[in-house]
Amino acid sequence: MIEVSQLRKSYGTQEVLAGVDLSIDRGESAVIIGGSGCGKSVLLRHIIGLIQPDSGDVKIDGESIVELNERQLIKVRRKFGMLFQGAALFDSLTVEENVGFLLDREQTLSRAEIKKTVAEALELVDLAGTQDKKPAELSGGMRKRVGLARAIVYKPEIIVYDEPTTGLDPVVSDSIDQLVIKMRDQLNCTSIVVTHDTRSMRRVGNHVMMLHHGVIHANGKPDEIFNSTDPIVHKFVNGIADPKDLEF
Amino acid sequence: MANTADNPIKEALASLARLTYLFWEAMGSIIAKRFRMRDLVEQIHFIGVKSQSVVLLTGAFTGMVMCAQFYIQFHKVKMDSAVMSVVSVAMCRELGAVLTALMVSGRVGAAMAAQLGTMKVTEQIDALRTLATHPTDYLVAPRLLATLIALPLLTAEAIALGMVSGMIVAVYLLGLDPVFLWTNMVFYTWSEDVLMGLIKAFIFAGIIATVSCYKGMNCGQGAEGVGRATTQAVVTSSIIILISNFFVTLILNKILIYSD
User: Do B127 and A70 touch (CB under 8 A)?
Assistant: First the structure.
């Protein structure tokens, strides 16, 4: 279970998170939506301990992680798999080395077992046979799939997705969404998806939170969010621009 | 945390503290053997083997030019046969270590900062952290240890080649007697002189690797940030090498040369 309470973070004079409270249960597929630059990725990074908050708390399975140092966080992060917005593949390594990175570091499996596990993970994301390619040889969608394979290969309890469909065409976006659902159902893990793609939100989420002005502005099931009469939520999910923003 | 950005002195001290912390953290990682041997070997190959041409040229031409310069002065006082002893001691105690370190800082330090800086801006360092891997263990420790191993060896090579090339210039170009040159060189070059150069190389290695990794891992955003980090890595390493060289010289003179 993930609990975030009164989380605050500022960069200079800009307050990005202004007291975020949220709770995500085990096995849930939570989606955090919000406009570009509203702090969704910053919130996600706090949840996985990549950023220290100015104040507030983040608890993973009841354990507060905000006071932990980098080495103590390693143990907590082992529970997570993360798909980065730009995939963040290690460009000096092959696809196989990228996907098998943690397994190779932990040295609990033999080389043959790692190869087999990596091949299975790549199969799961429909990228069988790409083991020897370098990230530079892959398309954007393929990179995201490799990133996903790297995030799931060691069967984490929680998978976090940072804008998994951003920059991809609708067909590839749909295939990534299907993969997110497949991971959730096959691995039975908790998913947290950060996105501003409302179609994606509807497909993958069963709990949606909308971040607005540094706080969780709306919280509910996808249909509740879509049918919300709150003007901010309504504008966002229906993609309606504020008339003020249209003045050039 | 107090904002130090508006006070350059505080910012410099804070950077120094973070740099020192990174060094000790990496040393802890090395002692605890948290790095992979494969990464260490790769780094030794990159730092040691691929720097050969740069370092050998530096050593050779430094020895040659010093021989040519010292000869002019020594010839005036009829001490031609002492030329190589001065070249040798200068190479051992100062020039071998300092020039090798500066050249390696330019080649290897810049590459380290650029590699790590690119990893930082493309979120690869964050990806490492999410894969339960401490960036210091994976990135800094093998680079630091490889530099600590490779730089003293490169320095020893530069010193040796400086002596050999100096001898060649003295004998074949300046027409000096090789027996006198060799005898004086061996007589006046003490093991303490060689040791001083190697100790300096070891210290400079720590400076180059730590500063370069620190600058890369803390670089700003985008290509501009990586470019600035790369420049800063070379400039900062070089300045620290030159300044620390003075103090290290004073300390080592006290310990090695005047201890008798």
Answer: no
Domain's final residue, options A124, A140, A155:
A155
Output the pLDDT for position B134. Answer: 93
Alpha-carbon distance A199 to A238, whole Å?
A: 10
For residues A36-46, average pLDDT = 90
Contact B127 A90 (CB under 8 A): yes
The pLDDT tens digits of the residues spanning A89-127 come to: 999 999 999 999 999 988 889 999 999 999 998 988 888
Is there a contact between B129 and A78 if contact means CB atoms under 8 Å apart? no
- Phi and psi at residue A64, in whole multiples of 5°? -70, 135
CB contact under 8 A, A75 and B132: yes
Distance CA A87, CA A65 (A): 25
Question: Is residue B161 domain-resident?
Answer: yes
Mean pLDDT by 10 residues, chain B (260 residues): 68 91 96 93 95 94 96 91 93 96 96 96 94 94 97 96 96 94 92 94 97 95 93 96 96 81
In B32-173, the DSSP E strands lie at: none
- Across the range A166-173, mean pLDDT stands at 78
- Alpha-carbon distance A74 to nearest alpha carbon in chain B (angstroms): 5
Task: Give the nearest chain A residue to B3 (CA atoms).
Answer: A12
Tell me which of B130, B133, B217 to substitute to probe the interface with A (most A C-beta atoms closer than 10 Å).
Answer: B130
Domain coverage including residue A71: 1-79+157-239
Give the residue numbers spanning the domain of B154: 22-27+35-248
Q: How many domains, in total, are found in chain B?
A: 1
Judge whether B73 lies within some domain.
yes
Please indicate, yes or no, whether residues A100 and A163 belong to a single structural domain of this protein.
Answer: no
The contacts of residue A21 (CB under 8 Å, 6+ apart) are A4, A5, A6, A7, A215, A216
